[in-house]
Design goal:
homodimer, 351 residues, alpha+beta, 60s Ribosomal Protein L30, Chain: A, Phosphoribosyl-aminoimidazole Synthetase, Chain A, domain 2, 2 domains, disordered N terminus
Chain lengths: 351, 351
Amino acid sequence: MTNQTSFSLTCPIPISDYPTVQLAHGGGGRLMNQLIERMFGAAFGNPALDARHDGALLEMAGTRLAFTTDSFVVKPRFFPGGDIGSLAIHGTVNDLAMCGARPLYLSAGFVLEEGLAMEELWRIVQSMQAAAAEAGVQIVTGDTKVVDRGKGDGIYINTSGIGLVAEGRTIGPSQVQPGDAVLVSGDIGRHGIAIMAVREGLEFESAIESDSACVAGAVQALFDGGVAVHCLRDMTRGGMASALVEIASTSGRRVHIHETAIPVRQEVRGACEILGLDPLYVANEGRFVAFVAAEDGEKALAILRGHPLGQGAALVGTVGTQSDGLVTMRSAIGATRIVDLLSGEQLPRIC
Amino acid sequence: MTNQTSFSLTCPIPISDYPTVQLAHGGGGRLMNQLIERMFGAAFGNPALDARHDGALLEMAGTRLAFTTDSFVVKPRFFPGGDIGSLAIHGTVNDLAMCGARPLYLSAGFVLEEGLAMEELWRIVQSMQAAAAEAGVQIVTGDTKVVDRGKGDGIYINTSGIGLVAEGRTIGPSQVQPGDAVLVSGDIGRHGIAIMAVREGLEFESAIESDSACVAGAVQALFDGGVAVHCLRDMTRGGMASALVEIASTSGRRVHIHETAIPVRQEVRGACEILGLDPLYVANEGRFVAFVAAEDGEKALAILRGHPLGQGAALVGTVGTQSDGLVTMRSAIGATRIVDLLSGEQLPRIC
């Protein structure tokens, strides 16, 4: 009952600011962070939640587990490179991998809208199973709810997951050290652009496919190669920029990146220009950022590039000695600027 | 990839039967069971899922865990005796307790509709935390998505949970034995009637409150008292009848109950008559059925009645020697009939 004493009848998000929930509260930017910190943090606060990691690290009867949850509301449900079913597996498996865990078991909770075509549900369910089999995880428990027509959008899927964390392994923002090398596992921005292209009816010379994939194997390759991995985060909602800002702010370390080192495919860059988006903030679903010990940077890069899901990996920055929790970026023309969260969101319902 | 070979392009729910998802597919009755077995079972099939229990029993690095998930879409969000927040905690904690587990950690996944009042979200979040604290569980990880106005219904909540299962304890349909005593932990039907009364604008002399509560303490009392507990199930969607039919059919045992022994409050019985409902099928959210060894029936009854959440407990039946997986009920006038699942659902969006 310890947390009850901190309850207040006053809503921690002032009505004068936001009387109601906005789309931007789910967008991975500053408003979402405020909602999570001020409301969920205030009510539920505990060490596991406060670590602000992709999942909770738990110790149960001597076994170290990671536990994570994600709901998927992506629109459209089918897109180049994936669908809501495969995405729901990749998203949660990747969150477990980001905790340094071996993903093992998933739950699946469906909120179906009355009128969803049975054939479509079957396609999605098959896609989930194919992705789960490929990731080596089992869907062991589930739940199905149906809501009336007009109270959903076909299908929403929640997946929660459990993974096993190796003895002695601690991965998270608290482990970030000055000097750490910062890597990204591949070119950024494809998932968000693939979704936007479908929504906006854009056509490119070749279709841009989502990068949606399970990255647990690439992470395991780093561990197997003896790399001192300090922190991992998948670059989903809010993109690479938001992942780095969250790690910098939680760890209190300065992260410095080089714009020219960040891998972005030409067609993604072009689409971003047309759509007025910054690729740094565009969502990925099969890309992660890794903070590793300074001396392991080159080794980590070689290992990632040798893995099918890390072929486009790049060293993009380092951790500085300042304790200001900021992300700074040196641009192509040599100017340095602070990278911040977007206040709202670029792309609603991207995952 | 073992399950992929069983995939078929043909949807396992024939289009001629149900081309689209119906409300009844989420109702806890026969249609929901068909959807789960034919579609989710066919795609995801594995021993943990196939056990058709309230949660999955897993062994991880020598630690025995229960893992479960539930989404909550109840309408209205606030009702006499609870709200969607407390319900989301009770539902998942109770599923863990039904696996014989000590509930420990929950995740919370929110799907918010654009426009939900912040104050209302705050009330729900506080209610979740109060229920979690009372149940002795922590909410350790979460996720927030926002969907556009008109694509949700204010708030849907998924909670998944992990609990610890004591060494050597096995609870589930497979443990049901001929001769077992069948108990219910209290009067039935109040949750469903409380919800319906609000929806239909019914007024009774005294408001009927939902029975929504965490029952883990009452279950623990049975274990502490040395009762040989064989199977437990909370009587949620589909009510007591569906819980018994599922256990009988999964275990292959005959379950025989006595209608006159089933505790139903007078006002619930009255409301059921007005609404044309059978209390046996009305949802509960703080009531469970327990199958215990024949010789422990009376002891279990005394223990439950001594617990605040089992004061209205009753011995309602026994397990027969037939292996037909049926539930039979002897009525007040002495006739015996088969109790079956409803094909659809009595009450949509009850939880």
